[in-house]
């Protein structure tokens, strides 16, 4: 996962999102999630084995679109290498350690090249992507024991560990990556609601999740809310942008819980499936996205609400005065006749 220092400013975040777009088939929301460290599309399988010879391998799998990003292996007769392979190290440390061991042994061998090709071919024939995505160590270990056992034609001791990361992180860490010529698009064809929402979201740099604050007594029905009004929202995302917004408004407790903040409605969409999608501007180029399934009463800005009520009351006063003047004028005219 990228370090927090990479999120020091919104402009840095924008650059990360732009980089992430090429790994999400242009899906802006997924790119934002990847840049925020939420979407981890890569499973890193680290392994070591004994099967006559000893060996180790690492495999970077894209588990969103099911393809191999990077794969390498080491096969040697030096049995003490097995204990030097620390599969429980974080993937970056393991990757560097693997490179150091290969260098100490004088580089990759012919056996290693053949075994790497065998692993790559076997992955395409076995159902590894789903258990790797779920980090199911037991299932993945059993599959690799079978794959390695068939290659060496003997019983195999194999130990596996799986880490999760993202394609964006691999790019930042300069890990060599092989990408397919064209990733298969998994998104269904967008409907009118999704098209409208994507259009709104494309106008800002960040869209963060949130919810309305329900106020059954003094609130205002969502159906009556209009663009430009201020409402109270709760941020719900545990991402760097949401955290920055909460801290900017001093709306975060000592234990990291968010407090309500004010936001001005930019758009309200009546969804074809029922309910509403509300986009509220909470800071420059930052929208809070709210999906509310019912026409509930929600908390609005109290000052604006009082001002609106005052204006309505004054309107009634003016109407009453006008009617009074008309009645008095009528009496005067009648008296003069």
What does this structure look like?
With 337 residues, the protein is an alpha+beta fold. It has two domains: 42-165, no CATH class; 192-303, no CATH class. Helix content is 40%, strand content 24%. The strands form three sheets. Strands 5-7-8-9-10 form a five-stranded mixed β-barrel. Strands 3-2-1-4 form a four-stranded antiparallel sheet, sandwiched between helices. Helix 1 (10-20) crosses helix 2. The longest helix has 35 residues, at 302-336. It is rod-shaped and about 125 Å long. Residues 1-8 and 182-188 have low confidence and may be disordered.
Order of helices and strands: HHEEEHHHHHEHHEEEHEEEEH
Strand order of the largest sheet: 5-7-8-9-10
Q: Work out the strand percent.
A: 15-25%
Number of domains: 2
Largest pleated sheet: 5 strands, mixed, barrel
Task: Return the structural class.
Answer: alpha+beta
Q: What does the average pLDDT come to?
A: 85
Defining key terms:
11 helices; 337 residues; alpha+beta; five-stranded mixed barrel; four-stranded antiparallel sheet; disordered N terminus; single chain; 40% helix
Structural topology:
Layout: H1 10-20, H2 28-35, E1 42-51, E2 53-62, E3 67-76, H3 81-84, H4 91-104, H5 110-125, H6 129-133, H7 137-152, E4 157-165, H8 167-172, H9 192-201, E5 206-212, E6 220-221, E7 230-235, H10 240-248, E8 261-270, E9 276-283, E10 286-292, E11 297-298, H11 302-336
Parallel strand pairs: 5-10
Antiparallel strand pairs: 1-2, 1-4, 2-3, 5-7, 6-11, 7-8, 8-9, 9-10
Helix pairs in contact: 1-2
């Amino acid at each position: 996962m990228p370090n927090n220092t990479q999120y020091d400013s919104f402009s840095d975040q924008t650059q990360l999102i732009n980089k992430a777009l090429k790994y999400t088939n242009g899906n802006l929301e997924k790119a934002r999630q990847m840049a925020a460290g939420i979407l981890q599309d890569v499973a890193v399988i680290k392994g070591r084995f004994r099967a006559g010879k000893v060996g180790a391998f690492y495999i970077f799998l894209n588990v969103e679109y099911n393809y191999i990003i990077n794969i390498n292996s080491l096969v040697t007769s030096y049995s003490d290498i097995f204990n030097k392979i620390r599969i429980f190290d974080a993937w970056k440390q393991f990757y560097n350690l693997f490179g150091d061991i290969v260098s100490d042994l004088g580089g990759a061998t012919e056996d290693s090249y053949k075994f790497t090709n065998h692993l790559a071919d076997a992955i395409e024939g076995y159902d590894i992507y789903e258990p790797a995505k779920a980090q199911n160590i037991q299932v993945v270990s059993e599959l690799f024991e079978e794959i390695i056992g068939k290659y060496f034609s003997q019983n195999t001791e194999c130990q596996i560990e799986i880490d999760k990361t993202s394609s964006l992180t691999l790019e930042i860490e300069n890990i060599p990556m092989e990408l397919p010529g064209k990733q298969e698009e998994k998104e269904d064809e967008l409907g009118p609601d999704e098209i409208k929402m994507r259009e709104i979201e494309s106008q800002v740099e960040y869209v963060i999740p949130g919810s309305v604050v329900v106020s059954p007594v003094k609130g205002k029905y969502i159906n009556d809310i209009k663009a430009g009004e201020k409402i109270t929202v709760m941020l719900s995302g545990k991402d760097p942008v949401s955290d920055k917004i909460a801290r900017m408004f001093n709306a975060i407790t000592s234990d990291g819980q968010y407090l309500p903040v004010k936001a001005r409605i930019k758009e309200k969409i009546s969804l074809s499936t029922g309910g509403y999608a509300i986009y509220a501007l909470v800071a420059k180029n930052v929208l809070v996205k709210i999906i509310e399934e019912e026409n509930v009463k929600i908390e609005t800005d109290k000052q604006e609400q009082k001002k609106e009520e005052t204006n309505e009351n004054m309107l009634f006063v003016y109407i009453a005065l006008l009617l009074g003047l008309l009645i008095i004028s009528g009496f005067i005219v009648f008296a003069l006749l």
